[in-house]
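Deliverable D2.4 — example input (structure tokens):
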């Protein structure tokens, strides 16, 4: 079905592998279209979690410059940027947790794809960066906005202004990623996390994702009101009843998503 990505499901966990290893998984217009089509198809999917990773030596080296130079006019380039921004926004808005498993380079659009995920696990020898300024442009898939929200302003500006990447230790220190693992272990660790997430109550996870994302765009009072409404909804679910019963009975809960 797809040519530039691989998508598989196992035990309720989805795995997306960027699949242009001979190009370090560089992102071309076809990959953008396939990522958006996949995101559209997954809006109502019953997944415990979704992992993004890359085939070969890199997560993604960023945009395929050989394809970008074929774009002749600014309005055509604007359409490409709009498509990739829309694809990443739709990935960010998926109702279940998403995890980026980062080995090797995650530059430009590759870095921005990782930023659109909820959680990021990074190999010790990997690096994250947005080097677009070095070719006369800027990050165009949400990088200037997500980095500015996730990092201290001075660090975000340094990354964007100079195009310098962050190594794993710095990325962890600044809170841009969740964990550093040994080389070659990012995907296996992401899979372990995804399996843990798949055992948790789906409605509570979806509500948590909406609340945390919404907190960046609303006032504290409005966010607390949303939290109260979400808790009232969750209290009426079968998963809440099962969770409390299991706690009192000293057993593992079996959540059903209702």
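Example output (designed residues):
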């Amino acid at each position: 079905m797809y040519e530039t990505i691989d998508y598989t499901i196992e035990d309720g966990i989805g795995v997306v592998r960027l699949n242009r290893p001979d190009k370090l998984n560089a992102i071309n217009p076809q990959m953008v279209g396939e990522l958006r089509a996949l995101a559209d198809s997954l809006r109502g999917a019953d997944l415990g979690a979704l992992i993004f990773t890359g085939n070969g030596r890199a997560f993604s080296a960023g945009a395929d410059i050989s394809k970008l130079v074929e774009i002749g006019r600014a309005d055509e380039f604007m359409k490409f940027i709009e498509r990739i921004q829309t694809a990443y926004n739709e990935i960010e808005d998926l109702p279940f947790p998403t995890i980026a498993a980062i080995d090797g380079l995650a530059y430009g659009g590759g870095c921005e794809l990782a930023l659109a995920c909820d959680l990021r696990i990074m190999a010790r020898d990997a690096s994250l960066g947005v080097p677009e300024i070095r070719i006369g442009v800027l990050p165009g898939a949400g990088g200037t906005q997500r980095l500015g929200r996730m990092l201290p302003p001075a660090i975000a500006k340094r990354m964007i202004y100079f195009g310098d990447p962050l190594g794993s230790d710095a990325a962890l220190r600044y809170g841009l990623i969740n964990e550093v693992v040994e080389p070659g272990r990012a995907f296996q660790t992401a899979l372990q996390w995804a399996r843990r997430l798949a055992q948790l109550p789906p409605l509570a996870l979806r509500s948590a994702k909406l609340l945390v994302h919404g907190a960046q765009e609303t006032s504290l009072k409005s966010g607390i009101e949303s939290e109260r409404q979400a808790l009232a909804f969750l209290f009426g679910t079968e998963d809440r009843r099962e969770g409390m019963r299991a706690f009192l009975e000293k057993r593992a809960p079996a959540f059903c998503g209702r």
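Strands lie at 5-10, 13-18, 49-54, 98-102, 105-107, 119-123, 127-129, 166-167, 179-181.
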